[in-house]
Amino acid sequence: MSDINDNPVTAVLGLGAMGLPMAARLAETLTVKAFDIFDARRDLAAEAGAGVTLTPAEAADGADVVVVAVRDQAQLESCLFGGDTVGPGAATTLRAGAVVIVTSTVGVEGVESVGERLAGQSVRLVDAPVSGGAVRAATGDLLIMVGADQETLALARPVLDRLASTVHVVGPKVGDGQIMKTVNQLLCGIHTAAAAESLALAHALGIDLDRAVQVLGQGAAASFMLADRGPRMVQQYKVAPDGTGGPELRSRMDIIRKDMNIVISLAKKAGVAASVAAAADQLYQLALTQGLGEQDDSALVTLLAPRDADRPVLGSASGSAPAHS
Q: Which of 16, 102, 222, 292 has a CA between 20 and 30 Å from the CA of residue 94?
Protein backbone atom coordinates (compact mmCIF):
# COMPACT_ATOMS: atom_id res chain seq x y z
CA MET A 1 0.00 0.00 0.00
CA SER A 2 1.01 3.61 -0.58
CA ASP A 3 1.73 6.03 2.22
CA ILE A 4 -1.13 8.31 1.13
CA ASN A 5 -2.96 9.51 4.23
CA ASP A 6 -6.32 11.09 5.00
CA ASN A 7 -5.05 14.53 3.92
CA PRO A 8 -3.30 13.93 0.61
CA VAL A 9 -1.64 16.72 -1.32
CA THR A 10 -3.93 17.02 -4.30
CA ALA A 11 -3.57 18.46 -7.79
CA VAL A 12 -6.57 19.46 -9.89
CA LEU A 13 -6.02 19.64 -13.64
CA GLY A 14 -8.71 21.58 -15.50
CA LEU A 15 -10.61 24.45 -13.87
CA GLY A 16 -13.72 24.57 -16.01
CA ALA A 17 -17.34 24.40 -14.95
CA MET A 18 -16.70 21.32 -12.79
CA GLY A 19 -12.98 21.47 -12.08
CA LEU A 20 -13.03 24.90 -10.44
CA PRO A 21 -15.73 24.14 -7.84
CA MET A 22 -14.09 20.78 -7.13
CA ALA A 23 -10.75 22.49 -6.55
CA ALA A 24 -12.41 25.03 -4.28
CA ARG A 25 -14.16 22.29 -2.33
CA LEU A 26 -10.94 20.33 -1.83
CA ALA A 27 -8.98 23.46 -0.89
CA GLU A 28 -11.24 23.90 2.13
CA THR A 29 -9.46 21.03 3.89
CA LEU A 30 -6.54 19.90 1.72
CA THR A 31 -3.40 21.32 0.19
CA VAL A 32 -4.41 21.81 -3.45
CA LYS A 33 -2.38 22.80 -6.49
CA ALA A 34 -4.41 23.66 -9.58
CA PHE A 35 -3.76 24.05 -13.29
CA ASP A 36 -5.67 25.51 -16.22
CA ILE A 37 -4.52 27.07 -19.46
CA PHE A 38 -6.55 30.23 -18.81
CA ASP A 39 -5.28 32.93 -16.47
CA ALA A 40 -8.79 33.88 -15.33
CA ARG A 41 -9.57 30.36 -14.17
CA ARG A 42 -6.28 30.10 -12.29
CA ASP A 43 -7.04 33.43 -10.60
CA LEU A 44 -10.41 32.12 -9.43
CA ALA A 45 -8.77 28.98 -8.05
CA ALA A 46 -6.26 31.11 -6.17
CA GLU A 47 -9.09 33.14 -4.66
CA ALA A 48 -10.61 29.84 -3.47
CA GLY A 49 -7.42 28.89 -1.64
CA ALA A 50 -5.63 26.69 -4.16
CA GLY A 51 -2.04 27.14 -5.22
CA VAL A 52 -1.88 27.67 -8.98
CA THR A 53 0.68 26.43 -11.48
CA LEU A 54 1.54 27.07 -15.10
CA THR A 55 1.86 23.43 -16.21
CA PRO A 56 0.30 20.10 -15.26
CA ALA A 57 3.77 18.80 -14.38
CA GLU A 58 4.23 21.55 -11.82
CA ALA A 59 0.81 20.84 -10.29
CA ALA A 60 1.50 17.11 -10.00
CA ASP A 61 4.98 17.50 -8.52
CA GLY A 62 4.76 16.18 -4.96
CA ALA A 63 1.05 15.36 -5.25
CA ASP A 64 -0.41 12.19 -3.79
CA VAL A 65 -3.62 12.42 -5.80
CA VAL A 66 -4.29 14.10 -9.14
CA VAL A 67 -7.88 14.93 -10.08
CA VAL A 68 -8.45 15.46 -13.80
CA ALA A 69 -11.56 17.42 -14.84
CA VAL A 70 -11.30 18.16 -18.55
CA ARG A 71 -13.57 18.17 -21.57
CA ASP A 72 -12.52 15.13 -23.57
CA GLN A 73 -9.96 12.43 -24.28
CA ALA A 74 -7.57 14.78 -26.09
CA GLN A 75 -7.42 17.15 -23.12
CA LEU A 76 -7.02 14.23 -20.71
CA GLU A 77 -4.00 12.92 -22.58
CA SER A 78 -2.54 16.40 -22.95
CA CYS A 79 -2.78 17.11 -19.21
CA LEU A 80 -1.23 13.80 -18.27
CA PHE A 81 1.36 13.32 -20.99
CA GLY A 82 2.04 16.84 -22.22
CA GLY A 83 1.24 18.92 -25.28
CA ASP A 84 1.92 22.17 -27.07
CA THR A 85 -0.87 24.01 -25.26
CA VAL A 86 -0.23 22.86 -21.70
CA GLY A 87 3.48 22.11 -21.61
CA PRO A 88 4.94 19.14 -19.67
CA GLY A 89 2.31 16.65 -18.53
CA ALA A 90 1.60 15.47 -15.00
CA ALA A 91 3.04 12.03 -15.70
CA THR A 92 6.53 13.53 -15.94
CA THR A 93 6.53 14.41 -12.24
CA LEU A 94 4.09 11.94 -10.67
CA ARG A 95 5.74 9.69 -8.14
CA ALA A 96 5.29 5.93 -8.12
CA GLY A 97 2.26 5.02 -6.02
CA ALA A 98 0.36 8.23 -6.75
CA VAL A 99 -3.28 8.06 -7.82
CA VAL A 100 -4.95 9.76 -10.78
CA ILE A 101 -8.71 10.26 -10.54
CA VAL A 102 -10.35 10.80 -13.93
CA THR A 103 -13.67 12.58 -13.38
CA SER A 104 -14.27 13.33 -17.07
CA THR A 105 -16.56 11.44 -19.44
CA VAL A 106 -14.14 10.09 -22.05
CA GLY A 107 -15.46 6.61 -22.82
CA VAL A 108 -14.23 3.16 -21.90
CA GLU A 109 -11.39 2.85 -24.42
CA GLY A 110 -10.05 6.28 -23.59
CA VAL A 111 -9.71 5.72 -19.87
CA GLU A 112 -8.36 2.19 -20.35
CA SER A 113 -5.56 3.41 -22.60
CA VAL A 114 -4.59 6.13 -20.14
CA GLY A 115 -4.67 3.63 -17.27
CA GLU A 116 -2.31 1.30 -19.11
CA ARG A 117 0.19 4.09 -19.76
CA LEU A 118 0.15 5.24 -16.13
CA ALA A 119 0.53 1.69 -14.84
CA GLY A 120 3.82 1.51 -16.71
CA GLN A 121 5.24 3.99 -14.22
CA SER A 122 3.46 2.50 -11.18
CA VAL A 123 0.77 5.19 -11.03
CA ARG A 124 -2.76 4.00 -10.25
CA LEU A 125 -5.93 5.24 -11.94
CA VAL A 126 -9.45 5.56 -10.58
CA ASP A 127 -12.16 5.76 -13.23
CA ALA A 128 -14.57 8.16 -11.52
CA PRO A 129 -16.90 10.16 -13.79
CA VAL A 130 -19.16 12.53 -11.88
CA SER A 131 -22.76 13.69 -12.11
CA GLY A 132 -24.54 16.53 -10.39
CA GLY A 133 -23.40 19.83 -11.84
CA ALA A 134 -21.25 22.72 -10.67
CA VAL A 135 -23.41 23.77 -7.71
CA ARG A 136 -23.29 20.32 -6.18
CA ALA A 137 -19.56 20.07 -6.92
CA ALA A 138 -18.97 23.16 -4.80
CA THR A 139 -20.79 21.63 -1.82
CA GLY A 140 -19.36 18.12 -2.06
CA ASP A 141 -22.71 16.68 -3.13
CA LEU A 142 -21.73 14.93 -6.35
CA LEU A 143 -22.63 11.42 -7.44
CA ILE A 144 -19.45 9.59 -8.46
CA MET A 145 -19.47 6.32 -10.42
CA VAL A 146 -16.28 4.40 -9.76
CA GLY A 147 -14.40 1.70 -11.57
CA ALA A 148 -11.36 0.64 -9.50
CA ASP A 149 -9.99 -2.21 -7.44
CA GLN A 150 -10.41 -2.00 -3.68
CA GLU A 151 -6.80 -1.08 -2.91
CA THR A 152 -6.73 1.78 -5.38
CA LEU A 153 -10.15 2.97 -4.26
CA ALA A 154 -8.98 3.11 -0.65
CA LEU A 155 -6.15 5.43 -1.65
CA ALA A 156 -8.54 7.75 -3.49
CA ARG A 157 -11.25 7.78 -0.81
CA PRO A 158 -10.03 10.87 1.09
CA VAL A 159 -10.56 12.92 -2.07
CA LEU A 160 -13.66 11.18 -3.39
CA ASP A 161 -15.47 11.51 -0.06
CA ARG A 162 -14.84 15.26 0.02
CA LEU A 163 -16.35 15.67 -3.44
CA ALA A 164 -19.31 13.32 -3.25
CA SER A 165 -22.30 12.60 -1.09
CA THR A 166 -22.69 9.31 -2.98
CA VAL A 167 -19.91 7.09 -4.30
CA HIS A 168 -21.13 4.05 -6.22
CA VAL A 169 -18.48 1.43 -6.94
CA VAL A 170 -19.81 0.04 -10.21
CA GLY A 171 -17.07 -2.52 -10.72
CA PRO A 172 -13.41 -3.36 -10.06
CA LYS A 173 -12.00 -2.37 -13.45
CA VAL A 174 -10.98 0.90 -15.04
CA GLY A 175 -13.76 1.52 -17.56
CA ASP A 176 -16.61 0.34 -15.36
CA GLY A 177 -17.27 3.89 -14.19
CA GLN A 178 -17.33 5.12 -17.78
CA ILE A 179 -19.87 2.47 -18.70
CA MET A 180 -22.21 3.59 -15.93
CA LYS A 181 -21.72 7.26 -16.83
CA THR A 182 -22.53 6.49 -20.46
CA VAL A 183 -25.83 4.94 -19.41
CA ASN A 184 -26.44 7.98 -17.22
CA GLN A 185 -25.73 10.35 -20.12
CA LEU A 186 -28.10 8.48 -22.40
CA LEU A 187 -30.95 9.47 -20.10
CA CYS A 188 -29.62 12.98 -19.50
CA GLY A 189 -29.30 13.67 -23.21
CA ILE A 190 -32.78 12.38 -23.96
CA HIS A 191 -34.37 14.17 -21.01
CA THR A 192 -32.75 17.50 -21.95
CA ALA A 193 -33.92 17.17 -25.54
CA ALA A 194 -37.41 16.20 -24.39
CA ALA A 195 -37.55 19.18 -22.03
CA ALA A 196 -36.50 21.46 -24.90
CA GLU A 197 -39.19 20.06 -27.18
CA SER A 198 -41.92 20.40 -24.57
CA LEU A 199 -41.03 23.99 -23.67
CA ALA A 200 -40.55 24.95 -27.32
CA LEU A 201 -44.08 23.68 -27.95
CA ALA A 202 -45.40 25.58 -24.95
CA HIS A 203 -43.70 28.75 -26.20
CA ALA A 204 -45.06 28.32 -29.73
CA LEU A 205 -48.58 27.88 -28.37
CA GLY A 206 -48.40 30.94 -26.16
CA ILE A 207 -48.16 29.30 -22.73
CA ASP A 208 -46.26 31.20 -20.04
CA LEU A 209 -43.01 29.27 -19.74
CA ASP A 210 -42.41 29.94 -16.05
CA ARG A 211 -45.83 28.45 -15.38
CA ALA A 212 -45.12 25.54 -17.72
CA VAL A 213 -41.94 24.62 -15.85
CA GLN A 214 -43.79 24.83 -12.55
CA VAL A 215 -46.69 22.64 -13.71
CA LEU A 216 -44.54 20.05 -15.48
CA GLY A 217 -42.24 19.81 -12.49
CA GLN A 218 -45.10 18.85 -10.20
CA GLY A 219 -46.50 16.00 -12.26
CA ALA A 220 -45.54 12.74 -13.90
CA ALA A 221 -43.44 14.59 -16.48
CA ALA A 222 -41.00 15.82 -13.82
CA SER A 223 -37.31 15.00 -14.17
CA PHE A 224 -34.03 16.30 -12.81
CA MET A 225 -33.06 17.62 -16.24
CA LEU A 226 -36.35 19.52 -16.58
CA ALA A 227 -35.89 21.02 -13.12
CA ASP A 228 -32.28 21.95 -13.86
CA ARG A 229 -32.47 23.00 -17.53
CA GLY A 230 -36.09 24.20 -17.62
CA PRO A 231 -35.50 27.58 -15.90
CA ARG A 232 -32.48 28.20 -18.12
CA MET A 233 -34.55 27.37 -21.20
CA VAL A 234 -37.08 29.98 -20.06
CA GLN A 235 -34.24 32.49 -19.76
CA GLN A 236 -33.23 31.76 -23.36
CA TYR A 237 -36.41 33.54 -24.46
CA LYS A 238 -35.58 36.56 -22.30
CA VAL A 239 -32.29 37.41 -23.99
CA ALA A 240 -32.19 41.10 -24.90
CA PRO A 241 -30.99 42.30 -28.34
CA ASP A 242 -27.64 43.19 -26.75
CA GLY A 243 -27.25 39.61 -25.52
CA THR A 244 -27.95 40.32 -21.85
CA GLY A 245 -30.53 38.57 -19.73
CA GLY A 246 -29.69 35.06 -20.83
CA PRO A 247 -28.90 32.07 -18.62
CA GLU A 248 -25.56 31.39 -16.99
CA LEU A 249 -23.36 29.05 -18.99
CA ARG A 250 -23.25 25.83 -16.99
CA SER A 251 -23.32 22.95 -19.47
CA ARG A 252 -22.04 23.53 -23.02
CA MET A 253 -23.86 22.14 -26.02
CA ASP A 254 -20.72 20.60 -27.48
CA ILE A 255 -20.15 18.67 -24.24
CA ILE A 256 -23.52 16.91 -24.30
CA ARG A 257 -22.97 16.20 -28.01
CA LYS A 258 -19.62 14.63 -27.17
CA ASP A 259 -21.27 12.50 -24.50
CA MET A 260 -24.05 11.40 -26.85
CA ASN A 261 -21.42 10.32 -29.38
CA ILE A 262 -19.99 8.06 -26.68
CA VAL A 263 -23.49 6.75 -25.93
CA ILE A 264 -24.22 5.89 -29.56
CA SER A 265 -20.82 4.29 -30.09
CA LEU A 266 -21.07 2.09 -27.00
CA ALA A 267 -24.64 1.07 -27.83
CA LYS A 268 -23.57 -0.03 -31.30
CA LYS A 269 -20.74 -2.12 -29.87
CA ALA A 270 -23.15 -3.72 -27.40
CA GLY A 271 -25.68 -4.45 -30.15
CA VAL A 272 -28.35 -2.37 -28.42
CA ALA A 273 -30.80 -0.26 -30.41
CA ALA A 274 -30.73 3.30 -29.07
CA SER A 275 -33.08 5.03 -31.49
CA VAL A 276 -34.36 7.65 -29.05
CA ALA A 277 -30.81 8.56 -28.03
CA ALA A 278 -29.85 8.76 -31.70
CA ALA A 279 -32.72 11.17 -32.37
CA ALA A 280 -31.61 13.38 -29.47
CA ASP A 281 -28.04 13.21 -30.74
CA GLN A 282 -29.18 14.59 -34.10
CA LEU A 283 -30.78 17.58 -32.36
CA TYR A 284 -27.47 18.36 -30.64
CA GLN A 285 -25.62 17.96 -33.94
CA LEU A 286 -28.06 20.37 -35.57
CA ALA A 287 -27.42 22.84 -32.76
CA LEU A 288 -23.68 22.64 -33.43
CA THR A 289 -24.17 23.28 -37.13
CA GLN A 290 -26.15 26.39 -36.17
CA GLY A 291 -23.22 27.73 -34.14
CA LEU A 292 -24.55 26.88 -30.69
CA GLY A 293 -21.69 24.60 -29.65
CA GLU A 294 -20.22 26.99 -27.08
CA GLN A 295 -23.60 28.00 -25.65
CA ASP A 296 -25.40 26.47 -22.70
CA ASP A 297 -27.27 23.36 -23.83
CA SER A 298 -30.53 25.03 -22.77
CA ALA A 299 -30.20 26.99 -26.04
CA LEU A 300 -31.55 23.87 -27.75
CA VAL A 301 -35.05 25.20 -27.02
CA THR A 302 -34.50 28.23 -29.27
CA LEU A 303 -33.38 25.99 -32.11
CA LEU A 304 -36.77 24.25 -31.97
CA ALA A 305 -38.88 27.40 -31.49
CA PRO A 306 -36.84 30.55 -32.23
CA ARG A 307 -37.09 33.54 -29.94
CA ASP A 308 -38.52 35.81 -32.62
CA ALA A 309 -40.81 33.31 -34.31
CA ASP A 310 -44.46 34.28 -34.72
CA ARG A 311 -46.76 32.10 -32.66
CA PRO A 312 -49.43 30.26 -34.67
CA VAL A 313 -53.04 31.35 -34.44
CA LEU A 314 -55.15 28.47 -33.19
CA GLY A 315 -58.56 27.97 -34.75
CA SER A 316 -60.11 29.87 -37.63
CA ALA A 317 -59.83 33.56 -38.37
CA SER A 318 -63.08 34.12 -36.46
CA GLY A 319 -61.60 32.53 -33.38
CA SER A 320 -63.73 29.37 -33.46
CA ALA A 321 -62.23 26.04 -32.54
CA PRO A 322 -60.66 24.02 -35.36
CA ALA A 323 -62.82 21.32 -36.92
CA HIS A 324 -61.94 17.69 -36.30
CA SER A 325 -62.65 14.80 -38.58
A: 16
| CATH code, domain with 160 | 3.40.50.720
Q: Structure pTM?
A: 0.89
> Do 159 and 195 fall into the same domain?
no
Whether 233 and 252 share a structural domain: yes
Q: Which residues are catalytic, by number?
A: 181
Residue 316 has pLDDT above 80, yes or no: no
Q: Is residue 132, in this structure, part of any structural domain at all?
A: yes
- What span, in angstroms and rounded, lies between the C-alpha atoms of 72 and 131? 15
> How many domains is the chain built from?
2
* Residue-wise burial string across 143-164, b where 16 or more C-beta atoms lie within 10 A, e elsewhere: bbbbbbeeebbebbbbbbebbb
Q: For the range 271-279, what are the long-range contacts, defined as Cβ-Cβ under 8 Å and sequence gap of 24 or more? A: 274/186, 276/190, 277/186, 277/189, 277/190, 279/193
CA 184/CA 203 separation, integer angstroms: 28
Three-class SS state of 146: strand
Phi, psi (rounded to 5 degrees) for 160: -60, -40
Give the mean pLDDT of 127-148: 95
166 burial level (CB within 10 Å; 0-12, 13-18, 19+): exposed
Residue 181, pLDDT above cutoff 50: yes
The CATH number of residue 202's host domain is 1.10.1040.10
Cα atoms in the 13 Å half-sphere on the side-chain side of 262: 29
